[in-house]
């Protein structure tokens, strides 16, 4: 008789303890009180991370979600911070190391590369990231891979494990070799993101990023760092990404950078979708119709935008506009979507008031997109489009 694999059942005691400590920290009204709660909460989270018990952490986050006030954010902050950064002692005194991510928004007519980065590219990227993003005197190491989002660590403890491996890479002065077998396939989609990932180390309390050391206002300092990174880092990546228009985003500490890139990619994917249709079907943006509709599960989950050519009822391409927590202002989201469509030069914009179903294709899992009549359809390029790779099912 086949036996179920043994699984350590993670205790509800740990979960309750995390939520209780997060409630304490979130209810604290002074720095003095914070210090106690923070230390206790960090100790509890760290023990679970080191035991690889993501189940208990996720359950606590779920429960904190239903708690009033800022309990969820408090707990999530501590969990993310302990997953993406750590301190340790060296002969030179205490050091802090942080995982960072340099997001790249990208689209293409064929499969977007996710691949090992050649040694010369890694070297040149290190020069540029060191010159424009990091503070003087920090040490850092990169992973030798251009990651698709799906290939990043999927749990908090795995994230911390990657940080540990990068800590060793910094000490050895070499990039971290990733095993392509373990990373899995990147999905084949028109518009996506790629990431350069690494870790940066400095004495505890010292600045990690260049903009922390500048005397100009922070916003200007970050903007000039981004501009330099886009120009110089972009030039290094270009030969690797021929035929794939891309845009570099500001490298920052891991979770914040990923979240920020998710937000930026929403408008980018609309521009990319319009450019893709123009490239594949020779349709100028002014002749496109974009239909925007809200898709509902338990609540409003996301907007989907179906692109049709001229008056056609078929959907040629589609984009998803996910909503993030705390962003339930429907009008705001629609304004932003319309703004992005107008910026891309789309001639005709239809906003549906219907509550659309959150439907996906049974065969390939692709989302369905609305046409102007409010029908949810599989996006298919017209037959005449060059080099089509349409799904025929
Ligand atoms: Zn399909």
Fold blueprint:
Elements: H1 12-27, H2 31-50, H3 54-66, H4 71-84, E1 85-90, E2 93-107, H5 119-132, E3 139-142, H6 156-172, H7 180-183, E4 191-203, H8 218-237, E5 246-248, E6 252-253, H9 254-281, E7 288-296, E8 300-309, E9 317-322, H10 330-343, E10 348-357, E11 369-370, E12 376-377
Helix pairs in contact: 1-2, 1-3, 1-4, 2-4, 3-4, 4-6, 5-8, 9-10
Our count of helices gives 10
Q: List segments where confidence is low: pLDDT < 50 over at least 5 consecutive residues.
A: 4-8
Strand content: 15-25%
Note the main sheet.
Answer: 6 strands, antiparallel
Total domain modules: 3
Helix content: 40-55%
The ligands found in this model are: zinc ion
Shape: globular
Record field, number of beta strands: 12
What structural category do the secondary elements indicate? alpha+beta
N/C terminus separation: 40 Å
C-alpha-based Rg, rounded = 23 Å
Quaternary class: single chain
What's the mean pLDDT score?
92
Q: Helix and strand string, N-terminal first?
A: HHHHEEHEHHEHEEHEEEHEEE
Description:
- It is built from ten helices and twelve strands.
- The longest helix is centred in the last third of the chain and has 28 residues, at 254-281.
- With 393 residues, the protein is an alpha+beta fold.
- The protein is globular.
- Zinc ion is lined by residues 361, 363-364, 366, 378, 391, 393.
């Amino acid at each position: 008789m086949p036996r179920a694999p043994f699984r350590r059942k993670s205790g509800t005691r740990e979960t309750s303890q995390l939520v209780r400590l997060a409630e304490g920290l979130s209810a604290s009204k002074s720095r003095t009180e914070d210090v106690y709660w923070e230390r206790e909460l960090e100790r509890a989270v760290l023990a679970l991370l080191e035991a690889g018990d993501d189940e208990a952490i996720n359950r606590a986050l779920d429960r904190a979600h239903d708690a009033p006030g800022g309990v969820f954010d408090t707990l999530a902050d501590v969990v993310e911070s302990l997953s993406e950064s750590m301190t340790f002692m060296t002969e030179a005194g205490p050091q802090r190391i942080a995982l960072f991510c340099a997001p790249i928004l990208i689209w293409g007519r064929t499969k977007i590369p996710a691949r090992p980065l050649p040694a010369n590219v890694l070297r040149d990227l290190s020069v540029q990231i060191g010159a424009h993003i990091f503070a003087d005197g920090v040490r850092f190491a990169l992973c030798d891979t251009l990651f698709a989002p799906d290939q990043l660590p999927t749990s908090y403890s795995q994230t911390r494990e990657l940080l540990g491996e990068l800590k060793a890479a910094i000490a050895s002065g070499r990039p971290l070799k990733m095993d392509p077998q373990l990373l899995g396939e990147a999905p084949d989609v028109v518009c996506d993101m790629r990431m350069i990932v690494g870790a940066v180390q400095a004495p505890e309390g010292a600045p990690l990023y260049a903009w922390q050391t500048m005397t100009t206002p922070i916003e200007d300092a970050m903007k000039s760092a981004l501009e330099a990174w886009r120009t110089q880092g972009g030039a290094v990546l270009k030969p690797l990404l021929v035929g794939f228009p891309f845009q570099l985003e500001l490298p920052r500490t891991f979770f914040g950078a990923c979240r920020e890139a998710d937000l930026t990619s929403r408008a980018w994917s609309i521009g990319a979708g319009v450019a893709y249709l123009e490239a594949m079907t020779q349709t100028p943006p002014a002749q496109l119709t974009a239909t925007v509709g809200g898709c509902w599960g338990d609540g409003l989950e996301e907007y989907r935008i179906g692109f049709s050519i001229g008056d056609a009822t078929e959907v040629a391409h589609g984009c998803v506009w996910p909503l993030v927590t705390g962003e339930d202002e429907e009008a705001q989201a629609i304004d932003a979507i319309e703004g992005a469509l107008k910026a891309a030069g789309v001639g005709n914009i239809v906003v549906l008031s219907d509550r659309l179903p959150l439907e996906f294709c049974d065969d390939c899992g692709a989302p369905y997109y609305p046409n102007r009549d409010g029908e949810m359809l599989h996006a298919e390029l017209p037959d005449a489009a060059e080099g089509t790779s349409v799904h025929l099912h």
